Amino acid sequence: MNNDKEDQPSLDLKLAVEKVQSGDISAFPMIIRHLQKNILLYCYYLLEDQAEAEDAAQDIFIKCLRRIQDYVPTASFSAWVYKIAHNHCIDLIKKRNRMRQMLSQYRRERAEEDKGNKYTDQIIQLLEKLNTEEKRILLLRALEEYSFDEIGAIMDLKPATVRKKYERIRKKIVKREVQGGRQYEHSLRG
C-alpha cells in the first residue's frame, strides 16, 4: 500500500505531461505544483539571489511548456526540467559575469573621465546594490534611453514586464532602499 502512495505523485506527473503533450494545457499547473519548489530552490542555489531565482523559475516553466513536445521519456520528466533549469541558470550567470565586466570597464573609464565628478562613486555604488537584471534594465533605459519594447526585445522579456520591473527599480532607488537614490530621481525617467 505504501508503494502506491509513493508512486502516486510520479503517476500524476506522468499523466499531466501526457495530457499537456496531447494539447490539454490545463494540466500544466499540476506540473508546476509538482516541481516548482525544487526548481526554485535549485535556481536559488545556483544564482544566490531570491528575486533572480523566482524570475528564473518562471522562465524555466515557460520554456518547459514551449518545449514539452520535445520531451521523450527516456529520462524522467523532472530530470528534463532540471536540465532546462541548469542551462537557463548557467546562461544567467554568464550574463551576470558579462555585466560585471562591463561595469568594471565602465568604472575604469568613468574614473578617468570624471575624476572631478563627485557623483561617479555614488552611481557605481547604486549599481552595485542592484541585481544583474535590475542593472541591465536601468542601464538600457536610463543611460542608453531604449524604449520598453526595445529593452524587452534585447532581454527577451515582454515590454509590460520590463516596464513593471523598471518601476520597481525606480521606487527602490527613490525610496532610498538603495543609499543615495534621492539625488538621481530626476535621471530615472518613466
From TrEMBL:
One of its GO terms (biological process) is DNA-templated transcription initiation. The keyword Metal-binding does not apply. SUPFAM superfamilies: Sigma2 domain of RNA polymerase sigma factors, Sigma3 and sigma4 domains of RNA polymerase sigma factors. Keywords: DNA-binding, Sigma factor, Transcription, Transcription regulation. Residues 32-98 form the RNA polymerase sigma-70 region domain. InterPro entries: RNA_pol_sigma-70-like, RNA_pol_sigma-70_dom, RNA_pol_sigma70_r2, RNA_pol_sigma70_r4_t2, RNA_pol_sigma_r2, RNA_pol_sigma_r3/r4-like, WH-like_DNA-bd_sf. Pfam families: Sigma70_r2 (PF04542), Sigma70_r4_2 (PF08281). GO terms for molecular function: DNA binding; sigma factor activity. Residues 121-173 form the RNA polymerase sigma factor 70 region 4 type domain. NCBIfam families: sigma70-ECF (TIGR02937). Belongs to the sigma-70 factor family. ECF subfamily. This is RNA polymerase subunit sigma. It comes from Paenibacillus yonginensis.
